[in-house]
């Protein structure tokens, strides 16, 4: 208690060095008066005691805060300045956290407001036949991306409109309008529709899917499980970029195409197909296409990157089909051919185990004009090794254009040869 009382007096005294000096002056004047009245050594004792007390006070005043910080003292001392700083820090932290949370929510709602009017429902209507009932075969989603010359254009998935005899588009307010199918591509699972522009108030803005990074927040908008839940919004992140998914187009158990997609954990359910994957700026960076639907799998959905989709969309809008370079051959991977036919039919050297066999050559096609024949085995295009049909198709469709020349390396009757082929446009 004595120490605390002394500390209290010292804190009061140390508020100003002036006060301390004036106190010393006060005692010094009185000491001189006292010395005149008193004789002997009693005055010297009083002065020594006073000087000792002041020096001790100064020592305690400067040492106690340091000892307190080192936790040496058996009690806590709250220094006014530190306490105020502490209160100030604590008062600021909740404000910062609250501000961040509000900003995130605000960004998401702004992004949704920006694009939601441009996301529509797509209804696939099929005519009745002797074996089946007519009516709505299914619903999906679509994105209005353009208005021009009194028309509005919508991108969706090929599988959403496949085999449709009629197509209707359901707008955000529930209005259903007829739509015309301009073109559809099974390989990329994209299709383009056209409706009257008078029904459309807003179009979506395309972003840049090439700069998307894992962990980036995204929003999926569509009509999961039908028009009843049209305009549903789910939020997640980009789980991965440049994912490659094998696609079996003809359901024969063999992959026909490697789809390059964005992976997201934003909920994508049946009916979301063809809808928008949106970044935090409200720009469409992907067209939702598929999800892995297995009992033990959750939160793995895929979206076609918009940078990949845009040239496909442009071709479908303008030509009704995707203009790709054409070889004019029917192919089969060597891995699908028995070892007997590899030796007896194709006459391949034993060390050639990867490549693509030509099953048939279309007359007058680029392959026929280059001199390729049935049972030739292609092993490289432009000196790039080709191991199977998937690799050949991907190289042809992503690296070459109509009118390009392409070097083909192949085996015929066990001998390695090369030819140059000029690629043409595929005719339907």
TrEMBL record:
Domain of life of the organism encoding this protein: Bacteria
Biological process per Gene Ontology, one example term: proteolysis
UniProt keyword annotation of Hydrolase present: yes
Residue runs in coiled coils: none
SUPFAM superfamilies: PDZ domain-like, Trypsin-like serine proteases
Keywords: Hydrolase, Membrane, Protease, Serine protease, Transmembrane, Transmembrane helix
GO molecular-function terms, A-Z: serine-type endopeptidase activity
Bilayer-crossing regions: 45-64
Residue span(s) of domain PDZ: 313-389
Family in the record: Belongs to the peptidase S1C family.
Protein's name according to its UniProt entry: Serine protease Do
Lineage: Bacteria, Bacillati, Bacillota, Bacilli, Bacillales
């Amino acid at each position: 208690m004595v120490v605390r009382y002394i500390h209290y007096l010292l804190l009061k005294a140390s508020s100003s060095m002036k006060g301390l000096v004036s106190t010393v002056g006060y005692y010094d004047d009185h000491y001189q008066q006292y010395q005149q009245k008193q004789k002997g050594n009693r005055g010297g004792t009083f002065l020594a005691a006073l000087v000792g007390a002041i020096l001790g006070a100064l020592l305690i005043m400067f040492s106690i805060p340091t000892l307190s910080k080192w936790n040496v003292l058996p009690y806590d001392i709250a220094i006014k300045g530190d306490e105020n700083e502490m209160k100030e820090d604590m008062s600021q932290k909740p404000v910062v956290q609250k501000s961040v949370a509000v900003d995130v929510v605000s960004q998401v709602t702004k992004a949704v407001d920006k694009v939601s009017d441009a996301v529509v429902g797509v209804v696939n209507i099929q005519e009745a036949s002797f074996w089946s009932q007519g009516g709505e075969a299914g619903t999906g989603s679509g994105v209005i991306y353009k208005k021009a010359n009194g028309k509005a254009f919508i991108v969706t998935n090929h599988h959403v409109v496949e085999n449709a005899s009629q197509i209707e588009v359901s707008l955000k307010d529930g209005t259903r309008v007829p739509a015309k199918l301009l073109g559809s591509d099974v390989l990329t699972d994209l299709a383009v529709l056209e409706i009257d522009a008078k029904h459309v108030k807003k179009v979506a803005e395309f972003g840049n899917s090439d700069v998307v990074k894992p962990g980036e927040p995204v929003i999926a908008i569509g009509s999961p499980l039908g028009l009843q839940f049209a305009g549903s919004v789910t939020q997640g992140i980009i789980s991965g970029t440049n994912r490659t998914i094998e696609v079996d187009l003809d359901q024969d158990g063999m992959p026909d195409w490697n789809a390059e997609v964005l992976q997201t954990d934003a909920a994508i359910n049946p009916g979301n197909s063809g809808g928008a994957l949106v970044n935090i700026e409200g720009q469409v960076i992907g067209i939702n296409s598929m999800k892995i639907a297995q009992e033990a799998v959750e939160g793995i959905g895929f979206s076609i990157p918009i940078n990949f989709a845009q040239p496909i969309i442009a071709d479908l809008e303008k030509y009704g089909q995707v203009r790709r370079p054409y070889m004019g051959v029917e192919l089969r991977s060597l891995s699908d051919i028995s070892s007997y036919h590899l030796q007896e039919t194709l006459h391949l050297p034993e060390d050639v185990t990867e490549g693509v066999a030509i099953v048939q050559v279309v007359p007058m096609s680029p392959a026929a004009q280059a001199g390729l024949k049935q049972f030739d085995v292609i092993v490289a295009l432009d000196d790039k090794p080709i191991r199977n049909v998937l690799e050949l198709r991907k190289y042809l469709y992503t690296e070459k254009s109509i009118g390009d020349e392409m070097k083909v390396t192949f085996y015929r009757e066990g001998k390695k040869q090369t030819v140059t082929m000029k690629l043409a446009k595929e005719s339907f």
